[in-house]
């Protein structure tokens, strides 16, 4: 077995690999750029080597620099994680020449399956059903438009070397095909150093389901069930689960056997993933093979008890697989929510800055992974599992140079409903401040009827949130539970206030029992009867809710029981009440005396500033292109500017017809959120 491995990556996946290597008694080497000097993976590794400036194309994906780090440290093997050099055959070849093991598949398999065009041709030759499309490379935008018209809209424009949603666009007409081709080409060149593009038919109403395969160098191959990855935004997976709520055992077996056969056809050895799109009749079509560890691998680990990183290391060391297909069992259900540094209220645009608060929920070990002894962190035991794979820490920075992922929050339960409920509580317990994040959106999905029923496709987000995410309106029964909790917490805060003031010895007599709770546009008159065990909150209609908690004023996380059911609230004090976040909703909750409520109703509402004649930068980023000049007349939907952030190009368009009065930014400018790019007459 190896004594020292280098992780050619950063962030949460580097930390993830380090944890398994540590449990195996293997020393680790981290590499880092200028931006990652104080990163968590650098702190966790036994050694760390600086490899260059912040941009990935000057550090993490420069093969010569990674090779120098290997030579400096004497690492015997390299784990590439995902992204960066993980599917780069030249890197695998360079390692082979150096006599260093690549903890991944042979370079021949990477070349055959890592390139989407080649992999589809091999799949077709192997008799695997594939999506209709043009496999040849597309030279320019006009050829893209011509081919798209021949295939028939909608089409998917994809980077041949792409992955992680980068370099992918859906086009529904000629104009979108033309724009999509250029954007995909630019993103592919920036992210992968390879701008080759191809086009295929976009299958409407599909599910995205993938099979995890594991092969060794002795001809053995198995599949470890499937993952449902249909909740996607901009072709980037957001929520994954294992197994899929849609597949039956017959389809699972057919997909699994086909995936293994395809892997073995290219002499694959390591962990890999074969992706399929599946229609409503459970017909499945090969999409691509990812010759690396997937972002969503934890859900497979949670239901099988197999540590995939350990298996990759053992295969790279020449070991045979220690299990057969008959040994693989799927137990319970697992969910993964990708927590991103992005603002869901601004179209999910990237957010950067310092994590002034970062407190993930406590990890809990349960299920097959805990039973196998492969749990990654010290965790208490429970009936449901909570796992958080992360590469950040409280006070750390989210950089504009890399993928905006903060963490992968995972839960496991005995069945799907249990895993979902565990995820709801875990999301509500996750505290992040200082940057925009998508926790509210993830919570909203967990409560969405279609998701709960397992009735989703890759169009779920586009169909259910066509105008973007605007927050959550809590159901009446949930809202009432929050109101009761807020009233009880306010009473506790008032007792603390009178005690601190020292006005009376028997302070509780000076805290009233009648209050008006206002939240989400509704007011509830309540009466609170308190005792040592909690509070009984009575509403005007005669309903009484029992509230119990050990919350004390100043705590940002309140764990309560309302009528015996758990309720987790993120709480911040505001004048006259609280700012409360729970289940995807953000509420300003006022708790007032009846007289205060009467007076508050007479106060005028503050009007927001009019920004309708301004084009504001929606996220920190670089102005790549200005599409119009001062004095230009623009039409609704016309491209105005392109801003690049976190390796993604974002085209800003006119919301209505108008004339450009002033352009305040130039191409190449770095802008902050809400900087004015243009003004209109």
User: How many domains is the backbone divided into?
Assistant: 5
Helix count, per DSSP? 18
CATH topology description of the largest domain: D-amino Acid Aminotransferase, Chain A, domain 1
Arithmetic mean of pLDDT: 91
Specify the biggest β-sheet: 8 strands, antiparallel
- Distance between the ends: 69 Å
User: What is the overall silhouette?
Assistant: globular
Give me the CATH superfamily of the largest domain.
ATP-grasp fold, B domain
Count the E strands: 41
Note the beta-strand portion: 25-35%
Question: Which CATH C-level class of the largest domain is it?
Answer: Alpha Beta
Please tell me how large the radius of gyration is. Answer: 27 Å
Residue windows where pLDDT falls under 50 for at least 5 positions:
none
What is the helix content?
A: 25-40%
The secondary-structure class comes to alpha+beta
- The CATH architecture of the largest domain can be named as 2-Layer Sandwich
The neighbouring-strand order within the major sheet is 14-13-10-11-12-15-24-22
Can you put this structure into words, describing what you see?
- By secondary structure, this protein is α+β, with helices and mostly antiparallel strands.
- The protein has 5 domains: 100 residues, Rossmann fold; 70 residues, ATP-grasp fold, A domain (Dna Ligase, domain 1, 2-Layer Sandwich), CATH 3.30.1490.20; 257 residues, ATP-grasp fold, B domain (D-amino Acid Aminotransferase, Chain A, domain 1, 2-Layer Sandwich); 125 residues, Glycoprotein, Type 4 Pilin (2-Layer Sandwich), CATH 3.30.700.30; 67 residues, OB fold (Dihydrolipoamide Acetyltransferase, E2P), CATH 2.40.50.
- It has 18 helices and 41 strands.
- The strands form 10 sheets. Strands 14-13-10-11-12-15-24-22 form an 8-stranded antiparallel sheet.
- The longest helix has 26 residues.
- The N and C termini lie far apart (69 Å).
- The mean pLDDT is 91.
């Amino acid at each position: 077995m190896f004594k020292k491995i280098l992780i050619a990556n950063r962030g949460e996946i580097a930390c993830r690999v380090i944890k398994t290597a540590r449990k195996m008694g293997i020393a680790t080497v981290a590499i880092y750029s200028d931006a990652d000097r104080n990163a968590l993976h650098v702190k966790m590794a036994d050694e760390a080597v600086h490899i260059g400036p912040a941009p990935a194309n000057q550090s993490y994906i420069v093969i010569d620099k990674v090779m120098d780090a290997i030579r400096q440290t004497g690492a015997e093997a390299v784990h590439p994680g995902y992204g960066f050099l993980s599917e780069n055959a030249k890197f695998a070849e360079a390692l082979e020449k150096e006599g260093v093991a690549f903890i991944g598949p042979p370079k021949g398999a990477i070349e055959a399956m890592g390139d989407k065009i080649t992999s589809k041709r091999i799949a077709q030759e192997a008799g695997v059903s594939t999506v209709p499309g043009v496999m040849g490379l597309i030279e320019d935008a006009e050829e893209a438009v011509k081919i798209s018209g021949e295939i028939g809209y909608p089409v998917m424009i994809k980077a041949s070397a792409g992955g992680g949603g980068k370099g992918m666009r859906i086009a529904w007409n000629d104009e979108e095909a033309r724009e999509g081709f250029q954007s995909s080409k630019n993103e592919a060149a920036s992210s992968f150093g390879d701008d080759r593009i191809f086009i295929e038919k976009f299958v409407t109403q599909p599910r995205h389901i993938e099979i995890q395969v594991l092969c060794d160098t002795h001809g053995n191959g198995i599949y470890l069930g499937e993952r449902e990855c249909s909740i996607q935004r901009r072709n980037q997976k957001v929520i994954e689960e294992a197994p899929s709520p849609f597949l039956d055992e017959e389809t699972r077996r057919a997909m699994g056997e086909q995936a293994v056969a395809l892997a073995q056809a290219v002499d694959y050895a390591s962990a890999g993933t074969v992706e399929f799109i599946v229609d409503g009749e459970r017909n499945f079509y090969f999409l691509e093979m990812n010759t690396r560890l997937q972002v969503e691998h934890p859900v497979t680990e949670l239901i099988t008890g197999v540590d995939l990183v350990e298996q990759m290391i053992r295969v790279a060391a020449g070991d045979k697989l220690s299990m057969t297909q008959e040994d693989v069992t799927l137990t319970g259900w697992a969910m993964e929510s990708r927590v991103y540094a992005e603002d869901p209220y601004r179209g999910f645009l990237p957010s950067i800055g310092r994590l002034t608060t970062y407190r993930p929920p406590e990890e809990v070990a349960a299920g097959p992974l805990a039973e196998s002894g492969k749990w990654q962190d010290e965790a208490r035991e429970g009936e449901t599992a909570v796992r958080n794979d992360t590469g950040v820490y409280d006070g750390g920075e989210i950089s504009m140079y890399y993928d905006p992922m903060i963490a992968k929050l995972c839960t496991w339960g005995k069945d799907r409903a249990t895993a979902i409920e565990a995820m709801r509580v875990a999301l509500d317990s996750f505290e992040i401040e200082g940057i925009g994040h998508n926790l509210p959106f993830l919570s909203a999905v967990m409560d969405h009827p279609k998701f709960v029923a397992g009735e989703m496709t890759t169009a779920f987000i586009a169909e259910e949130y066509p105008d973007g995410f605007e927050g959550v309106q809590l159901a009446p029964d949930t809202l009432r539970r929050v109101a009761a909790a807020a009233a009880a917490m306010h009473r506790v805060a008032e007792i603390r206030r009178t005690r601190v003031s020292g006005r009376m010895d028997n302070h509780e007599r000076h805290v009233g029992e009648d209050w008006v709770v206002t939240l989400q546009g509704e007011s509830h008159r309540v009466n609170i009867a308190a005792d040592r065990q909690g509070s009984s909150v009575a509403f005007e209609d005669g309903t009484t809710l029992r509230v119990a908690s050990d919350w004390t004023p100043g705590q940002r996380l309140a764990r309560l029981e309302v009528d015996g059911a758990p309720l987790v609230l993120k709480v911040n004090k505001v004048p006259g009440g609280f700012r409360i976040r729970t289940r995807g909703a953000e509420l300003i909750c006022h708790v007032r005396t009846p007289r205060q409520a009467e007076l508050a109703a007479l106060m005028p509402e503050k009007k927001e500033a009019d920004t309708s004649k301004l084009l504001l930068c929606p996220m920190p980023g670089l102005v790549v292109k200005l599409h119009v000049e001062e004095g230009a007349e623009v039409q609704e939907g016309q491209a105005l500017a392109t801003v690049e952030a976190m390796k993604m190009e974002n085209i800003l368009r006119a919301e209505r017809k108008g004339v450009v009065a002033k352009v305040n930014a130039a191409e190449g400018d770095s802008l902050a959120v809400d900087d004015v790019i243009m003004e209109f007459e």
